[in-house]
Design goal:
Order of helices and strands: EEHEEEEHEEEHH
Strand content: 25-35%
Shape: globular
CATH superfamily: Nucleoside Triphosphate Pyrophosphohydrolase
Number of domains: 1
Distance between the termini: 44 Å
Largest sheet: 7 strands, mixed
Radius of gyration: 15 Å
Number of strands: 9
Number of helices: 4
CATH topology: Nucleoside Triphosphate Pyrophosphohydrolase
CATH architecture: Alpha-Beta Complex
């Protein structure tokens, strides 16, 4: 039996105002729900990206942020971040550094994204159920592929924010 997932519905300041199922949040209702992102850089300033599994309900088969996941109803943002990083990449010993929070609206949903980064040089073990593949990309490789329908729109949007706002001046 599959457990029904519930997400908090939040205001733009992040305050929880309701809850809704995953299906409701992804069905075009545009109920604002929180998600967490982690950008994993190595010490060579390369960014680890994951290729989403082909059976994902949102953006299947596209390259995306190192880690991206939903916050469960009743779950703290940092707890959700650590859970998602452990589930998706098998990483437990990392130091998340907050970058930005913003609202992202796609054709199917509305998310309040809490974005972090970390520097990590140890082994990464992507979960084959969640991720079809993963690898480190250089800035040049990313920029050569922007706009070619290879990356998720959310990744491209966030990448542009990070670069244009100079959030990672020493990394990218």
């Amino acid at each position: 039996m599959v457990k029904k997932e519930y997400f908090p519905i939040v205001s733009e300041d992040g305050s929880v105002i309701a809850k809704a199922s995953r299906a409701e949040c992804h069905s075009g209702t545009f109920l604002l729900h929180p998600v967490v992102h982690l950008h994993v850089f190595n010490s060579k300033a390369e960014l680890f990206l994951q290729k989403r599994a082909d059976d994902k309900d949102i953006q299947p088969g596209k390259w995306d942020t190192s880690v991206g996941g939903h916050v469960d109803y009743g779950e703290d943002i940092e707890i959700a971040l650590r859970r998602e990083v452990r589930e998706e990449l098998g990483i437990e010993d990392f130091e998340p550094i907050f970058m930005l929070r913003y609202k992202f609206v796609s054709t199917q949903e509305a998310e309040l994204v809490h974005s972090y980064y970390t520097i990590y040089d140890a082994h990464i073990s992507p979960d084959p159920v969640e991720i079809s593949e993963g690898r480190f990309w250089t800035r040049e490789e990313i920029e050569q592929n922007i706009g070619k329908n290879i990356f998720t729109p959310n990744f491209e949007n966030e990448y542009h924010k990070i670069i244009s706002e100079g959030i990672l001046p020493n990394m990218m």
